[in-house]
Every structure is written in structure tokens, then in C-alpha cells.
Amino acid sequence: AWTKHQVGGFKDKDGFESEVVRHVETTLARSLYNCDEAAAYSATALAFRDRLILEWNRTQQRQTFSDSKRVYYLSLEFLMGRALDNAMLNVGQKDLAKDGLSDLGFRIEDVIQQEHDAALGNGGLGRLAACFLDSLASLNYPAWGYGLRYRYGIFKQEIIDGYQVEVPDYWLDFNPWEFPRHDVTVDIQFYGKVSRETNEKGKAISQWEGGETVKAVAYDVPIPGYATPTTNNLRLWSSKAASGEFDFQKFNSGDYESSVADQQRAETISAVLYPNDNLDRGKELRLKQQYFWVAASLYDIVRRFKKTRRAWKEFPDQVAIQLNDTHPTLAIVELQRILIDLEGLEWDEAWNIVVNTFGYTNHTVLPEALEKWSVPLIENLLPRHLQIIYDINLYFLQTVERQFPGDSDLLRDVSIVEESEPKMIRMAYLAIVGSHKVNGVAELHSELIRTTIFKDFVRIFGPDKFTNVTNGITPRRWLHQANPRLSELIASKTGGHGFLKDLTDLNKLELYVDDKEFRKEWAEIKYANKVRLAKHIKATTGVTVNPAALFDVQVKRIHEYKRQQMNIFGAIHRYLELKAMSPEQRQKQMRRVSIFGGKAAPGYWMAKQIIHLINSVGAVVNNDTDIGDLLKVVFLEDYNVSKAEMIIPASDISEHISTAGTEASGTSNMKFVLNGGLIIGTCDGANIEITREVSQDNIFLFGHLSEQVDDLRYAHQSGEHVVDPKLVRVFEEIEKGTFGNPKDFSDLIAAVRDHGDYYLVSDDFSSYVDSHTAVDEAYRDQEGWITKCITSVSRMGFFSSDRCINEYAEGIWNVEPLNTTQDK
Ligand code: 26W
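Above: inputs. Below: predicted complex with 26W.
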């Protein structure tokens, strides 16, 4: 296989060591004698970065000369995690680095751990973008990511007295993976007004004038592909005051402070990632972020296209832009503005180009997550864009009226402008109208958007505009890096590491499912991963857990629809059952460790109560001598990508238990199964397709189906629902004060018992508990369990993000991989 070191790698171990030493002594200006692990990390990262740069430059040249169509992935979030291990893997010289570092007195694992996560995302959507970049590079697609260079990524979570406390994540102190491009800048305009003039030819021309200008500065991050020379680019924009904006008038008149304040105001645009996941708050600064990033990216893309000197109508043959949710939807409006106001194209010609350029991916059906911006807000910030949005809507509604004459309800329902007070722009509708393809992220989810939230648009545009691309994950990070021993074991049976390029190769494992030695090694690896997690649990929470117990894991953003509350209610139920048993009976029960992790949005009261309840239950259960190691409940602080890489390989069963129809896909479900864990889950998102692949026998499904949800909710509202008796018992125990002040948890209980149980916790509770009993029984049969795990892993090939990216490339972008063989 191709490795990058064939071009610019270290000659040998000594070559690597001397580069590390050089960076310690010169770049870092430190003596080798006080080189600690942090410095060893820095120098190793710099040494590998140097290797990447060569291939990065060559890739850019190759893509420019080949003149082929490029993909631009616009995402407000890229949840990259650490980069060094991935860089070493993809340069192809990790073994050499391991030996070299060892000569210098370091363990490579410890050095890798020194890196701060690049955490520029909230959860699934941001991590998906990161997996996509990995696959795009590994498959040789000419592709760029465009995002924002937040000074603060997602906050660091601390748990203090059982409560979440948010601490700012300043991650840029030392970041060897970014290259500032102070020569690549774009001036971005805000506010101002629109003037209309008639030109020589009698055509009306709109000009956006005045207002403020902020400068966008590019920072580039190399994205190396695995076993290929391709190294793509992720371009992140940082805001600063435009040169003219640093008000020298003020400066000279002695008003230095307010001049500096202007500077800081400009910098706030890219200062912080909004920590809301699946909740739209409509804040002006967020809209500013969106336009700032979209306008800078489009300027860059258009500038690159113009260098080819092609006609405008060829733009969609050269450029595919994918919108990662509606966050970059203003790009549609901005491109239309560039084409008609700046480049002088006619409306229809421009609009054709726009629609053929964009694709839109929807990631959620939750109504509170669908972005809407108030008309007065847009009018003030982006006056010309509002006019264009109105024109887009006008022409769109005219075609609808021609298609469905006199259907005024339909016109109102599909209008991009919601006639509320104030009026709102529905960004998803704008994204649909301005794109040639709209996709959901798992089969059920894509079906739901076709039949519920976007059903009117299916009537208008026809069914072909709406497609499914089931999400995927990169096996490089989520198998090889996270679980190196399992990766080696698989390689030993499947004929090398080819499965990292073609994950369907995993099916070769099924031949070994009865191989004694193989099964033994498999079990040993899982156990070792559990020991490692047990040590982490001990070190961070003080709780001792038995690695022989069943590890039951739910790690993801805390959200009522994901139902961590159901999980902790289930743990309380288990505790009460154990307490009610005789000691003899108790000794026959399975040992469990209930492991939780995840951040709550800082303003999400219910989610914070859930975290508090988990910690309060842990404090009681973990110290109950009747229970011992039969049940432990732990909450792991600050769940992030690098913690996931440790937690996921240590799981026996993981929980993906959203109310049916609410979790668009889920991607950690794929990661857990790929690492030899099983799933307990609802018929939701990608769980359904995982079941199709691994078979019903290898997954624990429970709960109501999405088509039942409306009726169940209605039953709650009309008072027909009776709360599940086991759940009533759990509530009684909480209200007795067993887990601390019951007032602290009263809203959680009330949501289920008194406020309509929107997420149907009571409806699914008894089948959830039964399903856990089935898990216990299955785990009791260790041999049967291992068979399930091996079989499942062997059938996970479908969930590679490589498959997923190939589907986007063929069905949406119409792009092809670039041949790189001339380099070899
Ligand atoms: C406007 C506020 C906001 C912020 C983030 C709204 C919505 C989001 C994201 C779309 C939330 C998100 O991460 N969605 C997740 O996307 C994953 C990748 O497709 C899916 O696997 C998850 O099911 C979905 O919740």
C-alpha cells in the first residue's frame, strides 16, 4: 500500500529522532534535558507535520492541474479530536516513531495523550464531518472542508457535587496542525443599505453599500488520507478587524481604548462555538457567524473557479457544495447575489447554477432544531440578502401556484417566509428550494422527512429530489486507532489491513467464529480494554469497578429525546430489585457497571437534572454494601472524541434508546458494534440498518415503533395513559429522598407523570427493563455472547464512511476520485 513516507518521510528511526531533537532545541527552544512529555508531543507533532506538508502541496497542485470537479463540504462543526496518531498512521511511519520515542525515553501512547482535542463541534453532526474528511482524502476525492476557527471549542465539562460546570476550552495555545494564511483574507460586509440604479442598458442593478467590514483570515489544516498520497485541506476562517476598521482617527485623537474595542468586537465573530445541540436560539451573533463563514468560503470558491476562465454555466461542473444541515444555507443566497449583483447574470441563469451546485443534508426532525431567522434581524444585518430571499420565494411560490392552482393552504405551508409576528425565514425550506438534492442520514429518517416535515416539497419537486445516504464512520480512527489490538487480530485473520480500505473485508471473520484461539484472543482484548477503562474510572471518579462485570454504556449529548432519564430510571429499578432480594438470591445476579457520559447544553435545565440524578444515584448505589459490585453507576466527566476512543472499545452493551423517530441516525451505535460490543436500542435511526446487517439475533431491540408515536402521545394528552407501575415505584423511591432532595428531580418526574411524557418513557419502560433482563441472560452465556460479537463485527462493512462518501459522490456531487498513480 502507498504510504506518504515514500515521498517525504523520515529515512529511518535515527532520521526521525534527529528531527524531534531539532524541533525541541530550535522550534521549541528547549534543552533536551528538560524535555517532558508535552515537549516530546510538540516536537513529534512538528516532525510529522513537516512530512504532511509535502504531500499536501503536491495534492493541491495535482488537483489544480487536473482541472477536475471539487467538493466543498460546508460545516459549522468539525469535531476532529486528536491529529498526531492519525498523522503517524497516514504518513505510514508510526512504528518508527514508536521506536524513536522509546530511544528518547518516552512511550508513544503517553506522548499521543498529550494532545488537546480539536473539539470544534457539539456531537454527531460535527463528528460526521470529521469522518467525511478522512474518507474524502482516503478515497482521493478533490475536496475541501470549510468551517470556522473558533477560539473556544465546545466547553470542558467538570462535575462538581454532581452538577455540570462549564469551563472554557481554550485550545489554541499550541496547535501545530494549522497554518495561518495571512495572505488569504476576505473582507466581509454587514449591515448597510441597498441602493438601486439603472445601468447603461436600462437594467436595474442593486448595490449593497455601507455598513461594517470584518476581515476573514484563512487557517488551513492538512487532512491526510490513509494509504494514499492525497492530503486534502480543511480551511477554517478566523475573524479580525478589517484594516480600515482599526480606527486611526480615534487612535490619533487619543481614543485608543475604543479603537481596541472595535478590534475585539470583530474578533468575537469566530470566538466561540454555540454549545446547543438540536436547539435553535436565533441569536444575532450566530447569524453573523453563519454569514461570515459562508461569504468567505464562497468568495474563495468563486476565486478558484474564476482562475479556470470557464463560462459561468460550467460552475456546477467544477463545484459541488454540500450544506451540512441548514447552518450554511445563506450560501445559496450569497451565490445568487454574487452572480446577479456582481457578475451581471440574469436571474434564471444564475438560479440554475445555484440549484445545480448545492446539496442539502438534513440531520434532525426535531421541530425546535429547525432553524428560523427573524425577518427584521436579517433585514438589518443582510439587507440585500433579504430581498433576494423574497425574490427566491416569489418565483418558487409562482411555480407552485401554476402547479397547484388555487391551493392557498399549500402556498402558506411551503412559503420560505412564515407569516408570523415577526415574520420568520424557514431555513430548511430555503435549503430545499435552492438545492438539487436533499438527503436524510438513515433510511427511516429519510423516509420520515419525505412523509412528514418535507412532504409538501415531495409533491412539488417529485420524489427523486429526496434521497437517503446512511451515515458511516471511519474505520481508521474508530477501529485501528481506538482499538489497535483488535485491529491487529482482525488483520491476522483477514489477510492484512485491507479491511481499513474496504471494510466489507470484515466478512472474512465469520470463518473464524468457532476458532478457539481466535475467540480467546478476542475475549482477552475486550477484557484488557475494560481494565483500561476501569483504571480511568477509578482515577477520575474514585469508584472501583470490576472489569468482569457487564459494562453498559451510554455516551452522547444529554437530551430528553435520547432518554438518558429512562436509563437511570432503569438503573434505579435494578437497584430496588437487588435490594429486595435475599443475599443468596443476590449472588446469582449479573454484575453491572452503568456508565454514562455526555455534555448538556448550558441552558438546558432538564438535561442538567438528568446529570445530577445519575450522579446522585451513583453516590448511593456505589456505597451500598448490600450491593457491592453487583451494580455501579458512574458518570464520566467531559466526554469527547479522545475519551470515546477509550470508552467505546471497552463496552459490552451500549444504549441507543431514543424515542422512535427522533434520532436521525446515530453514529456511535456503529462504532460500538464495530468494536465488538452489542447494542440495546429502539427501532430508530441507523439501529434499524444495523439490525438488518447483523440480524435480529445479535441486537436487543425494544420499545414502540415510530408509526405508533402519535397515537401514544395522544393517549397521554387525553388522560388514557396509565404510568408503568415499575416506573411509579422508581418515582416513589426518588420522592422518598433516597437519592437526595427530591425537589432536585421533580421536573424529571413531572415530565413523565404530569406533562404528557412527550418522549414516551413510560410507554417503553417495561419492554426496556425486559430487554435488559435478556441482556443479562445472554451475557451469562459468555461463549454465546462472543459469537454474537464476532458475527456482528464481521457484518459491519456497510457502515464505513467510505461507502457513504462514495454514495454522495455518485448520487449527489457527480465527482470522481483523482488518479494519483502517476506519483508513484
Ligand atoms: C441550530 C441548532 C442546531 C445545532 C446542531 C440544530 C441541529 C444541530 C445538529 C443537526 C444536531 C446533530 O448533531 N444531529 C445529529 O447528526 C448526526 C449525524 O447525521 C446523527 O447521527 C444524529 O442522529 C443527529 O442527532
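The longest helix spans residues 37-66.
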